[in-house]
Design brief:
629 residues, alpha+beta, four-stranded antiparallel beta sheet, 20 helices, 14 strands, 53% helix, elongated
Length: 629
C-alpha cells in the first residue's frame, strides 16, 4: 500500500473551489513575501546599483570574471546583433556558449539587456534571493509543513550567508542554487498529483541551473534527487519516485542540450582535474554554521542557533517524516568533509565524470542549508503542536445558567513566530554586511583602442571586464580550466598584427565582429591568411576561395592567388544539435501537458499509466496466488 498523501489539502488533486482560492491567495502572499524578503536582504546592492564596475579591492578576481562574461554576451547581442557563440576578448579567443560558467541563457539575462551588464547582474542577485525564498517555501508546503514552518525553511535557506558571501567574491554561478528547492518540490508535486508534467517542469528547473552557468548547483542537485528518490519510494512503497526522477533527468538533459553539448565539448577538450586531497576538519563547519563573523566565502553556510535548534527538534521528534531529509543532511556533511578515507563519498564521487573536475568540498554545505531548513520547518511544527497540547488553560467559572467559560492561550503560536523572527534578524545581521562590499569602489576605465587588439601583461589579467570595454582582448586571462593561449599580444616580440599574410600581398580588415570576420585580400601568389585568435573547429570560411585551417593554434585560411573578399564565421555544431534537441523537448513537454490535461481523472495522466505497469507484476502474482495456481 502507498503512503497517504501528506501534502496540504489545497494542493491535492481533489481540492475544492475554496481550496483553489486559498492556494491562489497563498501564492500571491508568498510572491509578495519573497519580494519583500529579497529587498530586505539585498538592499545594500540596491542602494548603489550603478556605482562602479568592480569592487576596488575585490577579495578575488571572480567579480571581474563574472562581469566580463556578462558584458561579452550583452555587447555581442546589442552592438553586433549576434548570438554570443565566441568570446574574442578572453585568452586569445574561446567559445562563449561552451564556457560552462557563461550564463546568458538565463531568463534573468533580460535584466542585463534592459539595464546593462553592471546594473543587470546586481538586479539578478536580488531576484535570486526571492527565487530561493519562494522555492524553499513551496518545498516545505509540499512536505506538509505548516505555513509558519515553511517561512522558517525559506528563511534558513535564502537568508543564509552562502548567498551574500559568494556574491561578495563574485561567484555568480552559485546563485543557481536558488532553483534547487523548486526542482525538488515539483518532484513531490508530480507524485501527489500523479502527473508527469510537473516532473518535466522540474527538469526545466534543472536546465535553468546550467543555463546560468551553475555546474556545481546542477551536479549537486542531481545527486540530491538521486539519493532522495529511493528514500521517498521506500516510504511510499512504490517505484514511481524512481521513474519520476528518471523522467526529470531526461527532460533536464533535453532542455539543457543547447548549453549542455557545447559545454561537454569544452570540458572534454579543456578538463580541469582536481586533486583529491580535500580534507576539512568538522570545526570549520561548526564555525560556518554558528560563527557570525564568517569563515570565508568558500565555507559560507550560516544557520544560527535558532534554526539549528529547530532542525534538531524536527529531526528527532518528526523522525519518520523527516528521515529522508535527516539522511540527506548527513550525506551532505559527509561529502563536505572530503577525503577522510580511501572510499569516502567524495573519493568515490571524484571517479565520476564532471565530479572529477570539482574542488572545494565545503561547497556542498549550500544544499545542507536547504535540508536543515526543511528540518527546521518540521521543528517549528513540533513546537506549535506541543505547545498547543500543553498550553495553560485558565478556567473562569461563572455560575450563569450553569455555563462554564474557558479561555486558552496558545503559547506555541506566539513563541514560534518570535523565535523565527529572531533567527531571521540574526541572519540579516550576518549576511547583509558582505553585500555592502559589492557597492564599494570603482574600477578606472582603460583607454579605448580604435581597432580590436590582443593585449599581454599581468595587469590585464585582473581587468578583463575593463579591457573588453576598451576593445581589447586579454591574453593573461583568468580562467579555471586550462586553456591554450596561442596569439601574440600587441607590442610583444613576434606580433605581426591582428591579421597578416604569410608571404607577399596585402590584407585589409573589412569588418570585425565577435562571430564573423571579413577581409579584402590581394596576393600575387598562393598564400595563407592568419588571424591572431585561437583556432577552433567552429571557424569556417563562408565566403571566398580557400580552406580554414589551424596554423600553430591560430585561425588561418589557405587561399589561391588573386584579389578576393573572404569571410570567416564561427558556427558551433554542438550548439545547432543542442538547439534542435531543446526545441523537441519543449514540444514533448507541450504534448505531455496536452495528453494529461485531456485524460484528466480518467487515466490520472501518464504517471498513472507508469504506475500501472510498475504494479502489474505484483497484482498478477496476487491474483494467481488467490486462485491457488
Amino acid at each position: 500500500m502507498g503512503q497517504a498523501s501528506i501534502a496540504p489539502s489545497f494542493l491535492s488533486p481533489n481540492r475544492t473551489l475554496s481550496g483553489a482560492a486559498e492556494a491562489k491567495s497563498e501564492a500571491a502572499w508568498v510572491a509578495l513575501g519573497s519580494a519583500m524578503f529579497a529587498l530586505c536582504f539585498g538592499y545594500p546592492i540596491l542602494r548603489h546599483l550603478s556605482l562602479g564596475n568592480v569592487p576596488s579591492n575585490p577579495p578575488q578576481s571572480d567579480w571581474d570574471f563574472s562581469l566580463q562574461l556578462n558584458w561579452v554576451a550583452f555587447d555581442t547581442i546589442t552592438r553586433f546583433h549576434q548570438f554570443p557563440l565566441w568570446n574574442p576578448y578572453k585568452c586569445g579567443g574561446m567559445p562563449m556558449l561552451g564556457n560552462p560558467q557563461s550564463g546568458f541563457l538565463s531568463p534573468l539575462f533580460i535584466l542585463t539587456l534592459l539595464f546593462g551588464p553592471v546594473v543587470g547582474i546586481r538586479l539578478a542577485i536580488v531576484a535570486h534571493i526571492a527565487i530561493a525564498f519562494g522555492g524553499a517555501y513551496f518545498l516545505a508546503r509540499m512536505l506538509g509543513i505548516s505555513k509558519l514552518g515553511a517561512v522558517a525553511c525559506a528563511g534558513a535557506f535564502a537568508g543564509s550567508s552562502w548567498c551574500s558571501q559568494r556574491v561578495e567574491i563574485g561567484h555568480m554561478a552559485f546563485l543557481a542554487f536558488a532553483y534547487v528547492p523548486w526542482a525538488v518540490a515539483l518532484l513531490y508535486l508530480s507524485l501527489e498529483r500523479r502527473r508527469m508534467i510537473f516532473t518535466a517542469l522540474g527538469g526545466l528547473m534543472m536546465a535553468l541551473m546550467l543555463a546560468e552557468g551553475g555546474v556545481y548547483p546542477l551536479s549537486q542537485a542531481a545527486l540530491m534527487l538521486a539519493a532522495l528518490a529511493p528514500m521517498i519510494g521506500f516510504q511510499r512503497r512504490s517505484f514511481l519516485p524512481l521513474a519520476a526522477v528518471t523522467i526529470m533527468g531526461v527532460f533536464a538533459a533535453g532542455f539543457a542540450a543547447i548549453k549542455l553539448l557545447p559545454s561537454y565539448e569544452w570540458i572534454a577538450t579543456h578538463a580541469r582535474p582536481s586533486p583529491s586531497a580535500d580534507l576539512w576538519h568538522p570545526r570549520v563547519f561548526l564555525a560556518a554554521f554558528f560563527w557570525r563573523e564568517g569563515v570565508g566565502g568558500e565555507v559560507a553556510a550560516y544557520l544560527g542557533v535558532f534554526f539549528a535548534a529547530f532542525a534538531l527538534v524536527g529531526a528527532v521528534l518528526r523522525f519518520r517524516r523527516a528521515l529522508p531529509w535527516t539522511m540527506l543532511s548527513l550525506l551532505l556533511l559527509t561529502v563536505a568533509v572530503g577525503n577522510f578515507a580511501p572510499y569516502s563519498p567524495w573519493a568515490l564521487l571524484q571517479r565520476l565524470p564532471l565530479f572529477d573536475s570539482m574542488r572545494m568540498t565545503p561547497r556542498w554545505l549550500i544544499l545542507f542549508t536547504l535540508t536543515a531548513g526543511v528540518l527546521a520547518g518540521f521543528g517549528v511544527d513540533v513546537l506549535c503542536s506541543v505547545a498547543e497540547s500543553a498550553m495553560r488553560i485558565e478556567l473562569t467559572v461563572r455560575r450563569e445558567n450553569n455555563i462554564i467559560y474557558a479561555t486558552a492561550k496558545p503559547w506555541g503560536a506566539i513563541i514560534a513566530p518570535l523565535l523565527i523572527g529572531l533567527a531571521l534578524i540574526d541572519n540579516w545581521f550576518v549576511s547583509t554586511p558582505h553585500l555592502r562590499l559589492v557597492e564599494e569602489g570603482e574600477e578606472a576605465p582603460l583607454i579605448r583602442s580604435a581597432n580590436f587588439r590582443q593585449m599581454a601583461g599581468a595587469k590585464y589579467g585582473w581587468q578583463m571586464f575593463a579591457a573588453g570595454q576598451a576593445n581589447m582582448g586579454v591574453l593573461n586571462c583568468y580562467e579555471p580550466n586550462a586553456f591554450p593561449v596561442n596569439p601574440r599580444g600587441y607590442a610583444q616580440p613576434g606580433y605581426r598584427g591582428e591579421q597578416y599574410l604569410v608571404g607577399a600581398g596585402s590584407v585589409t580588415l573589412s569588418r570585425w565582429t565577435p562571430n564573423r570576420l571579413s577581409f579584402d585580400i590581394e596576393a600575387p601568389s598562393p598564400t595563407m591568411l592568419v588571424v591572431n585568435q585561437n583556432y577552433d573547429p567552429g571557424w569556417r570560411l563562408v565566403e571566398g576561395q580557400g580552406i580554414a585551417i589551424s596554423s600553430e593554434g591560430l585561425i588561418a585560411v589557405m587561399m589561391p592567388a588573386g584579389r578576393q573578399h573572404i569571410e570567416l564565421a564561427y558556427r558551433s555544431r554542438p550548439f545547432m544539435i543542442g538547439l534542435w534537441i531543446s526545441l523537441l523537448t519543449v514540444a514533448a513537454m507541450l504534448l505531455l501537458w496536452r495528453y494529461e490535461h485531456r485524460c484528466g481523472k480518467r487515466l490520472a495522466g501518464i504517471s498513472g499509466w507508469i504506475a500501472r505497469i510498475i504494479m502489474l507484476p505484483r497484482r498478477r502474482y496476487r491474483t494467481l496466488e488467490e486462485e491457488g495456481r
